[in-house]
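User: Sequence recovery, please. Input:
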């Protein structure tokens, strides 16, 4: 397959790198400093069981995605429509666009700007960009994919590349479960600049996380969402399986960038307001992250 990664950051580089390592043609659309490194020395994929540099092609221009069978759409939630419009003229009518993003509504927003088939995906992986062209994998790597005409083909390619992948009829519920995990940990990691394993050891943090999760559950129930899996077990598993991982929100703030907090705790606050559900703890974490964003002082 020809695979294009739109938004070649930590998540896109991990999954794109795994597919490239398995022999697929992978092209990356990303920021200039990473693109230069990709084209000069390749993509360094530092996983838990190997550390390899993989040849790839990269560009800052979405035109490099022309002819792709599969697009891993990994841009920030705030950039969904803009990136979709950039990508649209370069894709075949049957190209599958797999939305590997935080939040619950990105696939629907993407369908509003491109005619190609779009499938939502739920991502469970701990990664970071450790330098130009260098992705470091801290743990996990599973994907849950929404059914579509080409989802089975994509899933088989991912599985063969070493990525545990399943197709689920309840991706909405899985996306909401992932949203709850993000709401439980991302803002706490961002404000404290601590990894998950350290966060859960903090005094009073367990109760804060319980309250965050309870508010999210209440909003989900009011919104008619059937959550996928055991949410409480999944929350515990995050700290156990990714103890050294900093949240994507923490990584954004450390680099002086705006985060996706509007699509995480901020989303819960807005849906709660619409549905008449109080979300004071989520509002507090949202407000704290927005204050830190205003500082714009990289770590």
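Assistant: Recovered sequence (299 residues):
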């Amino acid at each position: 397959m020809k695979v294009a990664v739109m938004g070649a950051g930590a998540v896109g580089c991990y999954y794109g790198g795994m597919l490239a390592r398995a022999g697929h043609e992978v092209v990356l659309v990303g920021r200039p400093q990473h693109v230069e490194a990709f084209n000069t020395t390749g993509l360094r994929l530092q996983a838990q069981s190997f550390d390899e540099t993989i040849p790839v092609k990269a560009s800052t221009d979405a035109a490099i995605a022309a002819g792709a069978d599969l697009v891993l759409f990994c841009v920030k939630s705030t950039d969904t429509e803009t990136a979709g419009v950039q990508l649209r003229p370069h894709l075949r009518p049957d190209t599958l666009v797999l939305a590997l993003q935080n939040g619950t509504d990105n696939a629907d927003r993407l369908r509003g700007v491109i005619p190609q088939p779009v499938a939502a995906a739920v991502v469970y992986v701990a990664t970071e960009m450790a330098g130009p062209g260098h992705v470091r994998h801290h743990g996990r790597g599973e994907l849950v994919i929404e059914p579509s005409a080409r989802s089975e083909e994509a899933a088989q390619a991912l599985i063969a590349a070493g990525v545990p992948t399943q197709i689920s009829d309840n991706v909405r519920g899985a996306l909401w479960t992932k949203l709850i995990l993000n709401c439980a940990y991302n803002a706490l990691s961002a404000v404290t600049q601590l990894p998950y394993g350290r966060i859960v050891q903090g005094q009073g943090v367990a109760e804060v996380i319980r309250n965050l999760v309870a508010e999210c559950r209440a909003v989900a129930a009011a919104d008619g969402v059937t959550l996928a899996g055991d949410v409480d077990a999944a929350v515990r598993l995050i700290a156990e399986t990714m103890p050294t991982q900093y949240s994507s929100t923490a990584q954004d703030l450390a680099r002086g960038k705006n985060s996706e907090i509007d699509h995480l705790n901020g989303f819960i606050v807005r849906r709660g307001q619409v549905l008449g559900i109080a979300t004071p703890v989520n509002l507090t974490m949202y407000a704290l992250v927005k204050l830190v964003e205003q500082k714009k002082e990289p770590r």
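The chain is about 45% helix and 20% strand.
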